[in-house]
Amino acid sequence: ELPMDIPSTEQLIADHKEFMENTQKRQVEVDRICKAKQVKQSATKESRKIPKSKTPITEPEFRSPRVKYLWDKWRNVWMLEWERQRVLYDHLAYLKEKERADNFSWDDWRRRFLKFMNHKKSRLTDLFRKMDKDNNGLIPRDEFIDGIIRTKFDTSRLEMKAVADMFDRNNCGLIDWKEFIAALRPDWQEKAPD
Questions:
Q1: Residues ≥6 apart with Cβ < 8 Å to 167
Q2: What is 106-184's CATH number?
Q3: Which Pfam families match (predicted)?
Q4: What is the mean pLDDT of residues 78-102?
Q5: Phi-psi region of 87 (alpha: psi -120 to 50; beta: other; left: phi over 0)
Q6: Domains of the chain by residue range
């Protein structure tokens, strides 16, 4: 069970990094033991013709079953070590995303999104018209979230769920994009055709 706070998770990552460094230092000893007991592969005429990049990587063969056991266990430790590191970093990313969503502010998100769209020189109406496939002014909630994320705007799925919740008040799963733009830009009004 991983801790649900960032400082404890960061400490676990630091401890694991130290563990990985210590294991790396021990690699020399394991190599020394295993290389001495390895069976040398004889080079045949056929293997000389195959370029090194094409030769298949084979499992090393050992004279002693105990050395083979050590080699397998050591490789397993390395695999578990890298997997643990991945899990810790994924958990830290999740906690940071959760913290950002817990401290969600519509005004901050709105300012960041408008700045992003202005920087891209994109028009909001074009973005939402593209998402509104059947031109009824409503965008399915998941398409709305995915559409904003696809713009490469720096937001998270948790943050986008909070934004979608604000505009899917009746929980029907649809976002009125004109209402959304009106909230983003209070000065916006759709120009009616003449």
A1: 175, 176, 179, 180, 183
A2: 1.10.238.10
A3: EF-hand_7
A4: 95
A5: alpha
A6: 6-102, 106-184
93 CB contacts (<8 Å, ≥6 apart)?
none
Q: What was the pLDDT predicted at 113?
A: 92
Residue 117 has pLDDT above 80, yes or no: yes
The residues that bridge with 139 in the sheet, in sequence order, are 175
Tens digit of each residue's pLDDT (9 = 90 or more) over 161-187? 989 988 887 788 898 888 888 888 877
**Residue 139 in contact with residue 174, Cβ under 8 Å?**
yes
Label each residue of the chain as H, E or C: CCCCCHHHHHHHHHHHHHHHHHHHHHHHHHHHHHHHCECCCCCCHHHHHCCHHHCCCCCCCECCHHHHHHHHHHHHHHHHHHHHHHHHHHHHHHHHHHHHHHCCCHHHHHHHHHHHHHHHCCCHHHHHHHHCCCCCCEEEHHHHHHHHHHCCCCCCHHHHHHHHHHHCCCCCCEEEHHHHHHHHCCCCCCCCCC
Q: Please state, rounded to an integer, the average pLDDT across all residues of the chain.
A: 86
Is-above-0.70 flag for pTM? no
